[in-house]
């Protein structure tokens, strides 16, 4: 809010820099920076680990491990855009995860018997509802009682962590339902190679169609269009990223025993020399992708998102324009809670157990992911895609350090330094831009 | 005791019927400070009323009560003779009251179209934001105010003070207001743009829109306004037709609260 430097009405000289060109094709240069940073991290670790980082296996696991934080980061972007913060997401995840475990392992088996086909769905819906209610409660305190979000969610951090313990007096609950476990990834959470290709090709078609529709619409109104080469390049890059992801996921072979069971279950015979069957995309990664697309749609294409950004830019102006700012604020925290519910299911399913310590410190990783992804703590600025990339950057750092055997305390030191550095660089970049 | 009773309105507007807006005995206090104290103003269709007074006289606060930003502690508001409650900006807009705030009230991080349609977005058949139509409408309305304006895609933070002001004005005039409140609308505008706003004001006046104009530029006010109401320390000093008083007399009202004979004195007038 401090850098409201009025630009001249008519720039005297039209000097075109790289940034101007990028703006002309409506591409966020910050995104390119993030991808470049990711490339450096990946290549660096690959070099340090003698080629162990850029393997299908490691990349597949990397994506699965990113899913939970990436999903919550989507909600955190909206929270931070409205000039608020949510410190309670990690504790909420623990609490919701415990409740899911309790219902799934103790309550539902008593009612419906073990391994009921609907158990997984009830668990997921319960988690989203419970998370949403907790979020709405915190949001109501913040929006209607005007208690700072920092305080409300700091309280929430303690309350929900305590509540997570209370649910079972600290006992861990396991194992989870077999139809629920795919949410966490692992062998049972891989959808197979053909389904992965189908999804990949479907996504590419959607990207092309979407770009074509937007272009046609802008043309009809006679607006300036991106140069065609830029349009094709962007669409091409998007499709390439999708297809590359599918290829990597499909290249990660299932363990021989699992593959054999799979072949025999389909009535085939296991060949002598064995057979390589790929994992394909993982369920949690697909869930994260779907969440990312939905929240991006919400943020960019619906009134709700427009209000979220307007509130972040100038809360008073939004209110004077007739926006029900308090309601929007409460809903933002409610949405954050729903996403925490989804992440709670993913973590619980991945661990195959509900523990009261689940999600410890997640709030910091989620906030860091959003901030590294270009969300401004001053409010009003942030993208979902950026935050998800931010989550991937954080997870890449962490996985890479584990891979090359860096001690845990040193890992934290590095992540902390990278966070500060990233925000500093982003600030420098912003200042140059304005 | 209100001075400007309906009888006085009849006196100042011979031959006209119900006022578009009547604000009666409006008071509001912020923690002991009486920002507006028993003020009454009114506005006829197709009339421009200038609100004048020192810094801190209570002009912005008074019109913010009309635009729904503040809720008055006391007093009544009538629109077309009917008493209404304006408890939110939405209420005001429903009555056709649009406001250009002194602070502009723009969301700096979104573009001109998003600001103009904020709270009243156009939607497609799918219920999604119809950004293309909103941008097209924005181009139309901005071309009336600032034909050279091109920066439709950029957040308004990147615009000049005058361009930002144009966006705020565009937002107020786009939705077919019946009553327009302009709180120092030309403070940041260059001479060409100021002239454009003056022409626009006269054009809107011709369409029967009532306009409250707050400005420190007496010259401008005398050019545009049919009447002026002067405030001092939250109270109305008096109201006069611009044709009946001189700029010096109005300056006297502003500075010392002395009401000339041609003006209808209010509760804030200096008693002699
Ligand atoms: N939100 C508020 N809280 C507390 N005091 C306020 C608030 N708004 C206005 N005031 C006080 O009310 C008085 C009138 O302010 P107002 O903004 O209406 O003046 P004004 O006539 O518009 O002045 P200017 O010409 O400087 O715009 C001032 O003393 C101001 O300090
Ligand atoms: Mg003012």
CATH architecture of the largest domain in chain B: 3-Layer(aba) Sandwich
Which of globular, elongated, flat, extended, rod-shaped describes the shape of chain A? globular
Helix percentage range of chain B:
25-40%
Tell me how many strands of chain A there are: 0
Report the CATH topology name of the largest domain in chain B. Rossmann fold
Low-confidence stretches of chain A: 1-15
What descriptive keywords fit this protein?
heterodimer; A: 434 residues; mainly alpha; 16 helices; 0% strand; disordered N terminus; B: 272 residues; alpha/beta; Rossmann fold; seven-stranded mixed sheet; four-stranded antiparallel sheet; 24% strand; binds adenosine-5'-triphosphate; binds magnesium ion
In short:
The complex is a heterodimer of chains A (434) and B (272). With 434 residues, chain A is mostly helical. Chain A has helices spanning 18-24, 29-48, 56-81, 89-112, 119-144, 149-168, 193-220, 228-251, 256-265, 283-301, 303-313, 315-320, 325-351, 362-372, 384-403, 408-433.
Give an account of the 3D structure.
The complex is a heterodimer of chains A (434) and B (272). Chain A has 434 residues and is mainly alpha-helical. Chain A has a domain at 28-187 and 325-433. Helix content of chain A is 70%, strand content 0%. Chain A has 16 helices and no strands. In chain A, helix 3 crosses helix 15 (384-403), helix 7 runs antiparallel to helix 8 (228-251) and helix 15 (384-403) runs antiparallel to helix 16. Residues 1-15 of chain A have low confidence and may be disordered. Chain B is globular. Chain B folds into 2 domains: 6-96 and 178-265, Rossmann fold (3-Layer(aba) Sandwich); 110-176, no CATH class. Helices cover 32% and strands 24% of the residues of chain B. In chain B, the strands form 2 sheets. A 7-stranded mixed beta sheet of chain B has the order 6-7-8-3-9-10-11, sandwiched between helices. The interface between A and B is large, with 36 and 41 residues. Bound molecules: adenosine-5'-triphosphate and magnesium ion.
């Amino acid at each position: 809010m401090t850098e409201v430097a009025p630009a001249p009405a008519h720039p005297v000289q039209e000097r075109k820099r790289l940034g101007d060109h990028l703006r002309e094709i409506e591409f966020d240069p910050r995104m390119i920076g993030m991808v470049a940073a990711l490339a450096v991290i990946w290549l660096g670790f690959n070099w340090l680990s003698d080629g162990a980082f850029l393997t299908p296996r490691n990349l597949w696991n990397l994506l699965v491990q990113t899913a939970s934080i990436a999903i919550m980061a989507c909600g955190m972007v909206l929270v931070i855009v409205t000039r608020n913060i949510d410190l309670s997401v990690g504790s909420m995840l623990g609490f919701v995860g415990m409740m899911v475990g309790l219902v799934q392992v103790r309550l539902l088996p008593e009612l419906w018997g073990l391994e009921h086909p609907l158990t997984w769905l009830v668990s997921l819906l319960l988690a989203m509802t419970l998370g949403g209610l907790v979020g709405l409660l915190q949001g109501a305190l913040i929006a209607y009682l005007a208690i700072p979000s920092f305080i409300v969610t700091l309280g929430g951090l303690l309350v929900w962590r305590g509540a997570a313990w209370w649910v079972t007096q600290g006992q861990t609950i396991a194992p989870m339902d077999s139809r629920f476990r795919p949410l966490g990834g692992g062998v049972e959470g891989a959808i197979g190679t053909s389904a992965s290709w189908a999804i990949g090709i479907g996504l590419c078609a959607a990207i092309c169609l979407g770009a074509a529709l937007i272009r046609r619409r802008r043309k009809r109104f006679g607006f300036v269009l991106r140069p065609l080469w830029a349009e094709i390049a962007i669409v091409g890059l998007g499709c390439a990223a999708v297809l590359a992801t599918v290829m990597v996921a499909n290249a990660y072979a299932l363990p021989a025993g699992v593959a054999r069971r799979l072949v025999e279950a389909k009535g085939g015979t296991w060949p002598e020399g064995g057979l390589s069957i790929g994992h394909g995309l993982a369920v949690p990664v697909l869930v994260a992708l779907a969440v990312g697309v939905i929240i991006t749609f919400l943020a960019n294409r619906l009134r709700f998102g427009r209000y979220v950004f307007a509130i972040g830019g100038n809360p008073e102006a939004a209110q004077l324009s007739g926006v029900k700012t308090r309601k929007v604020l409460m809903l933002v925290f409610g949405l954050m809670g729903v996403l925490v519910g989804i992440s709670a299911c993913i973590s619980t399913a991945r661990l195959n157990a509900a523990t009261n310590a689940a999600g410890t410190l997640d709030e910091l990783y989620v906030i860091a992911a959003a901030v590294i992804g270009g969300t401004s703590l001053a409010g009003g600025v942030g993208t979902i895609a950026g935050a998800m990339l931010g989550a991937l950057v954080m997870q890449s750092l962490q996985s890479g350090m584990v891979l090359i055997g860096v001690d845990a305390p040193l890992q934290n030191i590095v992540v902390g330094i990278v966070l500060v550095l990233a925000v500093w660089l982003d600030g420098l970049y912003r200042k140059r831009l304005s | 005791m209100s001075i400007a009773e309906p009888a006085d309105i009849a006196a100042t507007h011979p031959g006209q019927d119900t006022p578009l807006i009547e604000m009666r005995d409006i008071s509001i206090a912020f923690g002991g400070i009486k920002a507006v104290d028993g003020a009454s103003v009114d506005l006829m269709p197709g009339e421009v009323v200038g609100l004048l007074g020192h810094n801190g006289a209570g002009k912005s606060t008074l019109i913010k009560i009309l635009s729904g930003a503040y809720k008055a502690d006391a007093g009544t508001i009538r629109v077309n003779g009917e008493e209404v409650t304006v408890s939110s900006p939405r209420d005001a807009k429903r009555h056709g009251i649009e406001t250009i705030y002194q602070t502009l009230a723009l969301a700096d991080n979104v573009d001109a179209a998003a600001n103009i349609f904020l709270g009243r977005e156009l939607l497609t058949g799918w219920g999604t934001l119809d950004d293309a139509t909103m941008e097209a409408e924005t181009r139309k309305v901005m071309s009336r105010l600032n034909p050279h304006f091109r920066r439709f895609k950029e957040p308004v933070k990147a615009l000049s003070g005058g361009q930002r002001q144009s966006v705020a004005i565009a937002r107020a005039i786009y939705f077919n207001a019946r009553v327009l409140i302009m709180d120092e609308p030309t403070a940041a505008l260059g001479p060409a743009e100021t002239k454009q706003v003056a022409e626009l004001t006269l054009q809107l006046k011709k369409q029967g829109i009532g306009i409250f104009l707050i400005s420190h530029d007496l010259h401008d006010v005398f050019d545009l306004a049919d009447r002026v109401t002067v405030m001092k320390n939250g109270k109305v000093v008096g109201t006069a037709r611009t044709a009946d008083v001189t700029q010096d007399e109005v300056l006297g009202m502003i500075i010392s609260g002395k009401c000339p004979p041609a003006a209808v004195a209010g509760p804030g007038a200096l008693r002699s």
